[in-house]
Amino acid sequence: MDRELWLQFRRKGIGGSDVAAIAGLSKWKFTVAVYLEKIGQTPLEDVQSEAAHFGSILEDVVAQEFTLRTGLKVKRRNAILQHSDYPFMLANVDRLIVGERTGLECKTASEYLKHEWEGEEIPPQYLIQCQHYMAVTGYTAWWIAVLIGGNKFIYKRIERDDEIIQYLINLESEFWNNHVLTKIPPMVDGSEASTALLRNMYPVGESESETELPLEADVILEQLEQAKQDEKVAIDRVTELENRLKAMLGEIETGIASKHIVSWKNMTTHRIDSKALAKDHPDIYQKYLKPSVSRRFGVKTV
């Protein structure tokens, strides 16, 4: 299938790259973002980051190096695989090992992330991705190979873990059946996807409306108050440390430390003085004044 058709079909189930987000293990994607993608509320275009772009380009290099070092021949499987019992579980695998019931996942990683691959370590988001592939294919093991910093190559074998696989089946079933099919969003979190979801679901409030909140709201409000206090302490600390660095720079724009570059540069911005425009040219101001409705969230003690 072509790429557009592949992107459309990917919405019909949960793939290996979705599992970490659903399990709360992804650094880049949140559960709500996966939900919005599956119900068709995000653009179909798949815009890759620079890291993902070069990861795709280097996939073949990683696969070839794996074969060179292990002697294991690999092949592409140009299809979206589907679990026989749970059709919403999909797998778009990088490679399969010829003559074995095993597969290969190809990765690239920054030099700054090399500690995640030390010894027997495998980043948890990739570990469950490979277990997801074993769940779909029924295979007994999966290899993962990673090129770190462009000059360090590591490969490791992951054995099938039926306990983890059953956990993933339960997790993905709950997400697909209770949220995607019913179009009931999962519990919101602090991600931009959750903020956008709530903004789109409830863009305008009913004027002067009021409701009794459940008892859980009191717990959340206590946590919110504590979080605000912690945030203030953190912001004050950040400001203090930034000011100490600014004092070191003085009139200099850029400072060089052993592992960082610190800058305090001049920035010029141009903004329209709306008050002056309204005073001097009220007709023009009114002509281009565009009203907008938004909702402001607030909490006060009673």
From TrEMBL:
It comes from the Bacteria. This is YqaJ viral recombinase family protein. Gene3D superfamilies: 3.90.320.10. NCBIfam families: phage_rel_nuc. Signal peptide: none annotated. It comes from Brevibacillus choshinensis. Residues 6-139 form the YqaJ viral recombinase domain. Pfam families: YqaJ (PF09588).
